[in-house]
Amino acid sequence: xxxxxxxxxxxxxxxxxxxxxxxxxxxxxxHAFFNxxxxxxxxxxxxxxxxxSVDSIFVGGNLVLPEEQSQLLREKMDEKKRQEFFSDxxxxxxxxxxxxxxxxxxxxxxxxxxxxxxxxxxxxxxxTKDRLVSAIHAxxxxxxxxxxxxxxxxxxxxSKTKKSNxxxxxxx
Length: 172
Fold this sequence. Notes:
Order of helices and strands: HEEEEHHEEEHE
Strand content: 25-35%
Distance between the termini: 39 Å
Number of domains: 1
CATH architecture: 2-Layer Sandwich
Number of helices: 4
Largest sheet: 8 strands, mixed
CATH topology: Yope Regulator, Chain: A
Structural class: alpha+beta
Oligomer: single chain
Radius of gyration: 17 Å
Shape: elongated
């Protein structure tokens, strides 16, 4: 893929993100042709063109539980409840046809501190403002679903989200 095509795509994507008032902010990323941090409903996500994906972009976001909250959930959820939560979350993410990839870290079901969700790749030949915004909303909905499932399984209301850090992660 030519540098000119990447530059053209980057400018087009940046323009759309600005039009949608998503507060795009370019983030230095050695693994990406471009990486824009965006804000959706007060939560941070990324719109990225990875250097290995020369003709596509994706949207990604991280749900990160702070250590004190992770500890509280371990105390509130016995092994059976943690296993049910992990199984339900994994199945819900796996069957969500709007997203492309996800990772639950570090060692589920015993220790869940981070849930990463990415959209399906949007290839250049299908890249429109509608497809980009749809991918952003699909990731946003999947992350919110993970928060709600956590609340439901643990019996702890956690939906007051904290501002994200510079890596695009946010805490509940």
